[in-house]
Every structure is written in C-alpha cells, then in structure tokens.
Design brief:
339 residues, alpha+beta, 2 domains, five-stranded mixed sheet, two-stranded antiparallel ribbon, 65% helix
Length: 339
C-alpha cells in the first residue's frame, strides 16, 4: 500500500491488485529472464546464472514489497543488482572479458520500476554503476564504441520513466487528495447511516411500547392505578435506552421491568466499554445482570459498563438489606462475585 501522506504507490497508479499484480510480476520476471539467458553463449555459465538470480530477486523486491517509498535495504539491493549483474556477465576470470550487451537491458526495467517506487536518486546511482562497468570493460577490451554505446542505450528507459514520474507527480497528488476526500465522505455517510438506523430503531421501539398508553392519554381517558404504574415502568425503560443503549435487550429489559415492579431500584449505565468487545463477552454481562435482576426483590441493582481501556468491563452491584453482592466481568469474559 502507498503512504496516504505522500503519493499514490505503484499498485495504486497502475491498478495492480490481486491477480493483475501477480500477472504483472510474472511478465516482468519473464522479461528479465529472457534477457539474462541471452548472456549464456558469451559469458561463463556460473556467473551468468548468478547474475540472472540476482536480477530475478531484484525484480521481486522492487514489485512485491508494499511500502512506498521502497525501504532502504531493498533499495540498496535493487540499485546494486544492475552493476553487479553487469560485472558478472562481462568479466570472466577464465576467458577474460566479454561484450557487455544484454544485462543492461534487464537492469533498465528494474531501475525504471525503482523510480516509480519513489527512489529516483538510487535508480540513477544504479545507472551510473552500470555505465562505469561498461566503460571499464570497453576500455580494457578495446570493444568498438558502438557496442559500448549500444549497451548503455537501455538506460534511456530509466530517463523516460523519470520524466514521466516528474510529470505525473501533480496528478498523483490530486489522486491522493481525491482518495482522502472519498474516504472522508464514505466515513461521513457511514456515520450518518448508523445515526439514522439508531434513530429509526429508537422510534420503532418507542412506537411499540409507548403508543398505546400515549393514545389513551391523548384521548383524555382517566388512567387507572395499574396504567399509571405501567407509565412509570415505561418511563424507566425509555431512560435506560438513552443512558445504556448497549444494555437494552429484550432479555435485560424484561428482567429490569420485573425488578422495578417488585419495588427494586434499577439503574443502567453505559460508559462505552463494549466498543471492540466480542459479542459473547457482551452477552456474558447481560446474562449476569439479568440473573441479579431476576433474583432481586428489594433494594437496588446498578449495572454499569465501564469506559474503554479498563481491565474490568462491567460491574453489577446488588444492594439488599440482608446482603450486598458485587459482580465483575472483565474483558476476557471472566466473572467474579464478591459479597
């Protein structure tokens, strides 16, 4: 992935994702191998094969590592691969020197990609190293100037890519800004959708539990004692939905309503500790709270989800004239009870 604070990386720029990235790598490596194999008739086999392996590894590193700019260890290897491979295919300790022809072609592609990976200076150092090796071999062997120049011509690929990279840099910045804007817009839309979903859920719940009694009140009917008690319990449930939305489930709401109808004071508080917690741990908290509410007949029960970052996720404090009991549930779902 490219660094979003700098520029688009090679994958973003060329659309190299998934199978297309692997296909590009395969074609790239095949091109390198085909060029390097043409050294075998003139260079010694072992150095030529070693040079081929070096270039293949350099081709993998310059494409596969997902960090832009390319990390320095990989950059140094890739930049040095061209000069080293050129030396291996032109210097033969047994037969002297050979003509420097094919290795610079393969090296030019690797160094061109290095430019795209944000290492322009290192790529041109590699070009300079190749030129020095070729010049030395040309001077020492008396190779015609045309052969030497022909061997250096592939570095024009690096020059062309360098110019293209300089021209495309403003476009890359624009693409980066557009991507950041799209990301922020998507986050805002997701937040809005979540807020709308929560509002719809709360309205549906309010309509379900409050509409019948509200219609009776709007109609001017005189409420019975049982209906007034129902209003008290309903008001407490609606308050729970505002103060502890993550605790409000059918199971826990039913237990809280039953406890309140028996005269137990019930307080539900949610300070946000459920964020990032597995569902089964959240269910452990709800089960523990439901158990205490079902068992309470007097006193009070306070269920609190603690803020994020605490070792203890939630507490259930049951106060009764005969006994006080405190239940703690940690982020691993372990339950401990103390009296």
């Amino acid at each position: 992935m490219a660094d979003t604070h700098t520029e688009f990386g090679l994958r973003d720029l060329l659309g190299l994702r998934d199978r297309w990235a692997w296909l590009f790598l395969l074609v790239f490596e095949l091109t390198i191998v085909l060029y390097m194999l043409r050294n075998l008739p003139e260079a010694a086999p072992i150095p030529a094969l070693a040079a081929l392996l070096i270039m293949v590894v350099a081709g993998v590193l310059v494409l596969v590592i997902p960090v832009d700019p390319l990390p320095w260890p990989a950059t140094v290897f890739v930049a040095a691969a061209g000069p080293v491979a050129t030396a291996l295919t032109t210097i033969d300790v047994t037969h002297g020197l050979t003509k420097p022809v094919w290795t610079p072609f393969a090296s030019s592609y690797v160094l061109a990609v290095l430019v795209l990976r944000g290492r322009l200076g290192a790529a041109w150092l590699g070009v300079g190293g190749i030129a020095v090796v070729i010049a030395l071999v040309g001077v020492m062997t008396g190779v015609r100037v045309g052969v030497v120049v022909g061997s250096v011509v592939p570095v024009a690929t690096v020059a062309g890519i360098s110019i293209c990279a300089a021209v495309m840099r403003p476009m890359q910045r624009s693409l980066r800004l557009l991507r950041e804007d799209a990301t922020m817009r998507a986050a805002a839309e997701a937040t809005m959708a979540a807020e709308n979903g929560e509002r719809d859920r709360q309205l549906a719940r309010l309509d379900k539990v409050a509409r019948p009694i509200l219609e009776r009140i709007a109609g001017g009917a005189e409420l019975t004692a049982a209906e007034r008690e129902q209003c008290r319990l309903l008001e407490a449930e609606l308050r729970d939905g505002l103060r502890a939305p993550q605790l409000v489930t059918d199971e826990l709401s039913s237990a809280a309503r039953g406890a309140r109808s028996r005269g137990v004071e019930v307080v539900l508080l949610d300070d946000g500790g459920f964020a990032g917690v597995p569902h089964w741990v959240r269910q452990q908290v709800i089960d523990s709270a439901t158990k205490e509410l079902d068992a309470a007949n007097t006193g009070s029960v306070t269920v609190r989800v603690l803020p994020m970052g605490r070792r203890i996720l939630a507490t259930v404090l049951a106060n009764a004239p005969e006994l006080d009991r405190r239940t703690e549930i940690d982020t691993a779902g372990e339950v401990s009870i103390s009296t």
